[in-house]
Specification:
The chain is mainly β. It contains 2 helices and 7 strands. The two termini are about 25 Å apart.
């Protein structure tokens, strides 16, 4: 899926082919464009008329990534996901109150 492999900072195929949260839908709706890092790779998120889009690098003309909305978050993958985003059955229960308590950036190291 990724034609510009030199921009991908990770070589772990399991991690590359998995889904990862890259932002809250509410946050992206406010700013419309957001830059972030995923697996040591710079990506750009944007909210278009048709919904969220994700690209490798800083430009919307870069390599497009798959995007999925679930649980109030934007999910993407740097590879080819082998399965859909997991399910949390309780999330859809009528008596549940689901909310995003804010997103903050942290400098961490594995």
């Amino acid at each position: 899926m990724i034609s510009e492999l030199s921009k991908i900072g990770c070589t772990d195929q399991v991690a590359l082919n998995d889904w990862h949260v890259v932002g809250a839908v509410a946050d992206l709706l406010k700013c419309r464009t957001r830059r972030t890092r995923l697996l040591d790779t710079e990506i750009t998120l944007m909210w278009a008329d048709t919904g969220p889009k994700a690209f490798v690098g800083h430009e919307a003309a870069g390599t497009a990534l798959p995007v999925h909305l679930k649980f109030g978050y934007v999910w993407t993958s740097l590879g080819q996901p082998l399965s859909p985003v997991f399910d949390i059955v309780e999330f859809a229960e009528a008596d549940r109150r689901n909310m995003n308590a804010a997103s903050i950036g942290l400098h961490v190291s594995a």
